[in-house]
Specification:
Layout lengths: L9 H16 L2 E7 L5 H10 L4 E2 L3 H10 L10 H4 L3 H18 L7 E5 L2 H10 L6 H9 L4 E5 L16 H17 L4 E3 L5 H12 L1
Parallel strand pairs: 1-3, 1-4, 2-3, 4-5
Length: 209
């Protein structure tokens, strides 16, 4: 019997091997967030160009849909504050982000990136003094990210567009709400320093290696 592993040790060895290997197979979820005037979209686009899987921001699609349906007829504020049914809008937004979160379970990549995450919804709801239901809190508690990068407002690159509703001063306030929201759900918020798109993306990639 020398040199042979007794059969009753095999399940134990499989369990040990699996426990060591499986964590390495899990796709790490990295969320990148920030208010307007942060350069977030440029970083996400750059990461996509490098071949990294990224889940896009969904609120602009919802905003466009609400505008086409006539649910938003003004452009002076965030759609969360303008839609006739903010609960429905936020609930749909949360559900879409949960779907993207769960999609990573089927991935074989080491990392995937998210353009905003679930706590963003609660941050904006808090900013607009909207009631936050328990189901939203539970969703954020259940679906947490492995890394959270937050981009501070950057005056030098702040540009108004037809889908940007906030002033630069409001962007600073939103930044604080975002930081608090992610910290409330146990995330270690990593602030990305100013710099070129490439430098900022490399900063993020170096942090997650």
């Amino acid at each position: 019997m020398t040199g042979h592993i007794p059969y009753f040790f095999v399940p134990i060895l499989i369990t040990i091997f699996t426990s060591k290997i499986l964590p390495n197979l899990k796709t790490k979820r990295i969320v990148i967030s920030g208010g307007p005037a942060t350069g977030k979209t440029a970083i996400i686009d750059y990461l996509v160009s490098l071949g990294y899987p990224c889940y896009e921001e969904v609120i602009r699609k919802l905003t466009k849909a609400a505008q086409l349906e006539g649910d938003i007829t003004e452009s002076h504020s965030n759609p969360i504050a303008l839609v006739s049914d903010s609960y429905k809008f936020n609930s749909t937004l949360i559900d879409l982000r949960v779907d993207d979160y769960l999609a990573a379970n089927e991935m074989n990549d080491s990392f995937c990136f998210y353009d905003r995450g679930l706590p963003d919804v609660l941050a904006y709801m808090s900013y607009f003094n909207q009631d936050i239901n328990k189901e939203f809190i539970d969703a954020c508690s259940t679906h947490t990210y492995d890394f959270m990068f937050l981009l501070p407002p950057w005056k030098a690159i702040f540009i108004d567009d037809e889908e940007r509703f906030e002033s630069f001063e409001e962007a600073n306030d939103i930044y604080r709400y975002l930081k608090e929201a992610y910290e409330d759900f146990g995330h270690d918020v990593i602030e990305v320093p100013f710099g070129s798109v490439k430098d900022r993306a490399n900063y993020i990639l170096n942090c997650i290696q």
